[in-house]
Write a structure and sequence with these properties.
Helix content is 83%, strand content 0%. It has 227 residues and is mainly alpha-helical.
């Protein structure tokens, strides 16, 4: 019978960007709506503010993720180029370096040397990238994927509090927006934790706490400076 294992490490790139985008979409847009509503603004003004926040936030998330992950990708490419040069200039030294890595991981020196020889014969750069630099296909930086995931999930998260502006009477909005948004944040934290194989309760508690703090802060500012 074939033994199969399911690992979730390959999800970390897109999962991190998606969770960050959705969480930020809900928190920032709901906080904006609550703050503007607390200032006594009418429903049309609240809606316009929320839409502007959605568009601006989605573009900001996409740009931020693309720039930051591109920087990571540039660093990885530079490291790989340097490693390629070292392999061409000093293959014996690189073999010894890889052997040392395997010895530190528990292999006998003779076996470690044999493993290094076999792996370098198959794909020398890939072996050094994975075992020396910690770069693998599953964890490699993907700027476009991260940017699109962040923008799409931010817009999805931001759409939830915006729907409340359309569906809920303005007199109820100051209560409905925080309650519904916090419930959505708790669900988001739980789903993200389950997808990543992590404990659900701490993840849900974290996002709910920081969301509540953000909305309470903007409500206080709106009340303080509102007309």
């Amino acid at each position: 019978m074939r033994h199969s294992e399911r690992h979730r490490t390959q999800r970390t790139g897109w999962l991190r960007a998606a969770v960050l985008g959705a969480n930020d979409g809900i928190v920032s847009t709901a906080s904006l709506i609550v703050g503007v509503a607390a200032a006594g603004t009418g429903s049309s003004g609240i809606l316009i503010s929320g839409i502007a926040g959605l568009v601006g936030g989605a573009m900001s998330m996409a740009a931020g993720e693309y720039v930051s992950v591109s920087s990571q990708a540039d660093t990885e490419r530079a490291d790989l180029a340097r490693e390629r040069q070292e392999l061409a200039a000093s293959p014996e030294q690189e073999h010894a370096e890889l052997t040392s890595i395997y010895v530190k991981r528990g292999l006998r020196a003779e076996l470690a040397s044999q493993v290094a020889t076999e792996l370098m014969g198959h794909d020398a750069l890939g072996a050094h990238a994975r075992d020396e630099l910690g770069i693998s296909d599953a964890l490699a930086a993907r700027p476009v994927q991260a940017a699109l995931a962040s923008a799409a999930t931010f817009a999805t998260g931001a759409a939830l509090p915006l729907l409340l502006v359309l569906l809920v009477p303005i007199a109820w909005l100051l209560w409905a927006a925080p309650l519904v948004s916090l419930a959505c944040l708790a669900v988001l934290g739980s789903v993200a934790a389950r997808a990543g194989g992590a404990p659900v309760r701490p993840a849900a508690t974290r996002v709910t706490f920081w969301g509540a703090l953000a909305m309470a802060s903007t409500a206080a500012i709106g009340t303080l400076f509102g007309g």
